[in-house]
Amino acid sequence: MTRIHILSSTDRPGSMALKISEFVKKQYDDLGVEAEVISLEDFPIQDVAGGKYGADIPSVKAFNEQVLDCDGLLMVIPEYNGSYPGILKLFIDYLPFPAAFDKLPIAFIGEAAGAFGSLRAVEQMQMVCNYRNAYLFPERVFLQRVHKIFSPETGISDELQAKLLDSLIKNFASFTERNKGERERKAGVTA
């Protein structure tokens, strides 16, 4: 069975990214896809304070393994100040380089209060993931004016956005299934 982890890419309590992540998980549950929501609210930031790059930090290693123990990763990214949240950058900085995202299928949902739905943040994160050799899923969804179009209970009220999100959810599961063998073969080569 395909395992998709949904990363709520902010540490802001009660975030819309987390609510959207949980909504997407329900959609995967309905499709029979194993999905789990992981929130950067739980990243052990206190253990990296002071810049402990290169150190063996058990709590960070455990968190990273939890996120990456999947066949595909779907990032739900809010836009903060024209980019993605700093905690997302910090999380990536503490991932093993370059192996963490190598050949990992990754998809993106952007969400923002503004008119562009986190377009800048998602495109910037795509560059980072591309640099880390991820397999980027070409469909993206940008939920603009998210507080007006999304409710955790009813989903997306905008018909076009709902259709795009549904397409991303279904097609990313298929994309992940098709590509998971490549990551498994690479792991077998390096093991």
How would you describe this structure to a colleague?
This protein has 191 residues and is α/β, with parallel strands linked by helices. It has helices at 16-31, 58-68, 86-93, 119-131, 146-149, 159-190; strands at 3-8, 34-39, 72-78, 105-111, 135-143, 150-151, 155-156. The chain has a five-stranded parallel beta sheet with strand order 2-1-3-4-5, sandwiched between helices. A two-stranded antiparallel ribbon has the order 6-7. The longest helix is centred in the last third of the chain and has 32 residues, at 159-190.
Head-to-tail CA distance between termini: 22 Å
Beta-strand residue fraction? 15-25%
* Secondary structure tally, helices: 6
> What is the N-to-C succession of helices and strands?
EHEHEHEHEHEEH
Could you list the spans in which at least 5 consecutive residues all have pLDDT below 50? Answer: none
Radius of gyration: 16 Å
What structural class is derived from the secondary structure elements?
Answer: alpha/beta
Major beta-sheet overview? 5 strands, parallel
* Shape estimate: globular
Biggest sheet: strand arrangement:
2-1-3-4-5
Helix proportion? 40-55%
Number of strands: 7
* Oligomeric state of this protein: single chain
The average pLDDT is 93
Task: Outline the secondary-structure elements.
Elements: E1 3-8, H1 16-31, E2 34-39, H2 58-68, E3 72-78, H3 86-93, E4 105-111, H4 119-131, E5 135-143, H5 146-149, E6 150-151, E7 155-156, H6 159-190
Parallel strand pairs: 1-2, 1-3, 3-4, 4-5
Antiparallel strand pairs: 6-7
Helix pairs in contact: 1-6
